[in-house]
Amino acid sequence: MKRRKFLGNLSLISGSTTLLGTAYAKPEASQNQASPSPSKVLTEIRVATPSVVRVNEPFWLGVRLLTDPFFAGWGPSWQRSRATVNGPFNQSSRGIRYMENVLPLWEGEVSIAGDEGFEGISTYSFKEGSGPYESDRRPVRRLEGLRFSKPGVKYIRITDPVTGITGISNAIYVEEEKPQMRLFWGNTHCHSIFGDGIRIPEEIYAFARDESFLDIFSLTDHTEAITNAQWTYFKEVTNDFNRAGRFVTFIGGEWTSPKFGHRNFLYPGNDGPILRCTDPEQDNLAKLFAVARSKGALIIANHTASAGHTTNWDNGHDPEVERLIEVYSIGGINEMRFGMGNLSKSRAKQKEVVGSHVIDGLKRGFRLGMIGTGDDHDGRPGDALHSLQEKPEDYKTLLGPGLMGVWAEDLSRESVFKALWNRRVFGTTNNRTYLKFMINENPMGSEMRSSKELSIFVEVAGNLKIQQIDLIKEGVSVQTSKPGKNDTLWKTVEKAPGAPTWYYVRVSMDNEHIAWSSPIWISPE
Questions:
Q1: Among 33, 175, 281, 327, whose Cα sits 20 to 30 Å from the Cα of 428?
Q2: CA atoms of 236 and 51, how far apart (whole Å)
Q3: Are residues 155 and 167 in contact, defined by beta-carbon separation less than 8 angstroms?
Q4: Per the structure, how many domains does the chain have?
Q5: Contact status, residue 290 vs residue 282, Cβ threshold 8 Å
Q6: Domain coverage including residue 227
Q7: How far apart are the first and last CA of the chain?
Q8: Quick one: which of 153, 125, 243 has its CA closest to 466?
Q9: pTM, entire model
Q10: Same domain, yes or no: 467 and 407
Q11: What is the mean pLDDT of residues 218-223?
Q12: 367 and 497 assigned to the same domain
């Protein structure tokens, strides 16, 4: 008998940008409140689009109209008309309850405007269509058939004419020719009720696709908490949601070792064994790396500098499989120790473990691409609201989720996994910042040889003003640019290398948003 797909046919997607430091009203409503107060008002409009399209190529637009977050109730699935916690037993071991931030009901009309060359509808009424759930009247929509007839960096603005509230899309690069590479957005670190989060896998995949509007997603629960039978279920759900050109998913998990740190693993195809530090066959890093090599899996080092689950680089590294590292998640920045060069306050943990940052691994010669992830536990991958939880108190220090930008040929498992493997990736604090970084025309993640002057190319665009771009060599900022605008092209040079070295860029924007490129490694010819 074919296993029933629960929520597997959901099709709508929505908004993007979540700003750090946003001031929210205190969540209201009790745990059993099924219908939030009708007095809720519009506070924000979020808009998401593809980051790269061709002139006259049709594309989609995702939009969500938000209110102050509130705790959602639960109800039987056959009576549900909005996102809920779908049962009284869906409670977290961490004390997390599900929160919502989309207006419960809104049937107004918004105006839609784009930059020069925009072609598409100019208004949309939320009386039309529905949200991702059956009979869902929330203002969550995916609109199709938009296009630009002229090339350049473009934006789309959606406005509520009554309040004047406007949401601005991420930057859209409209290219004359068919793009060789496109920029996709993803999250490869998230937890469900099977580990120490809330909501079931189908609900989490649906939220990632239909409300956070991610292109790429992997539910990487703590595998030590998952049985072999449950692992089969996890794989089936992941494969059910995978659709080339629409939403790419990867089978994976989090190997959660108190002794050796936490590592996510991702498989390139539709199968792979469960990996648990509690199994004698995988109870240390060498064994983990060996299985990963045999299965073509990718290993990602998680929240490396956070006290309590730290990465000790002395424990080992395998360059063939451990090729990525979390530079940012809800726990904060892992790039470098505060005061070394990155003075952002976006650090949730009070204690940063010296010697376990991204920089420390890179200085050892480990060639690690940088990504942003969520490490979400609240059933909202891509739009986590952990800091608003009532208890425990340490959740108050958590930040917004991170986001991973991926430069790939197309949106398919094969192409995206190849891009991850080749480190054509970068991390952000959940802002869809367009970022290209090249040296002598070699893209981020590359290993190259040169004894000539290095030509540095950095291109950045987003819906926030760019305060500063740092070109970082071996952990130290060696050049800076201060554009003071939303998009920029920075070209500069560095001397020919006399010894092996590496560079990456850090982009600092308004509202304490940051983006980090993966490094480029250079050896003299």
A1: 175
A2: 30
A3: no
A4: 3
A5: no
A6: 184-436
A7: 61
A8: 153
A9: 0.91
A10: no
A11: 97
A12: no
